[in-house]
Design brief:
This protein is α/β, with parallel strands linked by helices and 220 residues long. It contains 10 helices and 6 strands. It folds into 2 domains: 144 residues, Rossmann fold; 61 residues, Winged helix-like DNA-binding domain superfamily/Winged helix DNA-binding domain (Arc Repressor Mutant, subunit A). Strands 2-1-3-4-5-6 form a 6-stranded parallel sheet, sandwiched between helices. Strand 4, helix 4 and strand 5 form a beta-alpha-beta unit. It starts with 11 loop residues before the first strand and ends in a 6-residue tail after the last helix.
Length: 220
């Protein structure tokens, strides 16, 4: 029998994706007290999320962005490539608009900061389950301000693939490791690295990391 058959009608089945077990536990405990939401599956990586999504009947994938290996961004792209109707709510510890823009471009329906109030997660899950877009209020405000601001953020000039490579480089991963994780050739990753450095005005990987930290994309 499919797991969905034992779930009360109208209940939202959620898969939690985060590489920290304590974080998943906290979200699970929060959602267990909500009558119309049930945690049907968990995954500790982007790879596991993609595999489990194929096996589990879930309505919403709550996807952490910054994970080792396949990132939440890549996992979202893979899931939506397989199932265009998948509904993903992105979660991030950062409130930088760049993360939100790239996740929304990848197909996520919602974006929420982990710093939001607990009730915001419940509201976001319900909105995404209903196929409605949900964006964290503070993030949405920053996106709006940035869109009319006088400055040009060079990070916004990166393509989706360059952005993924940039985050991995900033996190200290090597070209060969990135090539392995993203199923690309080292030469292709090297080309992305060259373009990224040109667009961001960086001379080496350490400077890329500094740019990412200053933009709030990774922790110092």
């Amino acid at each position: 029998m499919n797991a969905r058959d034992t779930t009360p009608r109208g209940t939202i089945r959620v898969m939690l994706v985060d590489d920290h077990a304590v974080v998943r536990m906290g979200f699970r405990l929060l959602l267990e007290g909500t009558p119309d939401i049930v945690v049907a599956a968990e995954a500790d990586s982007g790879e596991a999320a993609y595999r489990r999504y194929q096996d589990e009947a879930v309505d919403v994938v709550v996807m952490d962005i910054a994970m080792g290996g396949v990132s939440g961004l890549e996992a979202t792209e893979r899931i939506l490539a397989r199932d265009p109707g998948a509904r993903v709510l992105a979660l991030s510890a950062h409130e930088d608009p760049a993360h939100a823009r790239h996740m929304l471009k990848a197909g996520a329906l919602g974006y929420l900061s982990k710093r939001s109030a607990p009730e915001a997660l419940i509201e976001a899950i319900r909105s995404v389950a209903a196929n409605r877009r949900y964006i964290d209020a503070q993030v949405a405000q920053r996106m709006a301000i940035q869109s009319v601001g006088p400055g040009d953020n060079p990070i916004e000039r990166l393509t989706e693939r360059e952005y993924q490579v940039f985050l991995k480089l900033a996190g200290g991963q090597s070209v060969n490791r990135i090539a392995e994780l993203m199923s690309l050739s080292p030469r292709t990753v090297g080309t992305h690295l060259y373009n990224i450095k040109q667009k961001l005005g960086a001379g080496n990987q350490a400077e890329l990391a500094l740019i990412a930290v200053r933009a709030g994309l990774i922790d110092a």
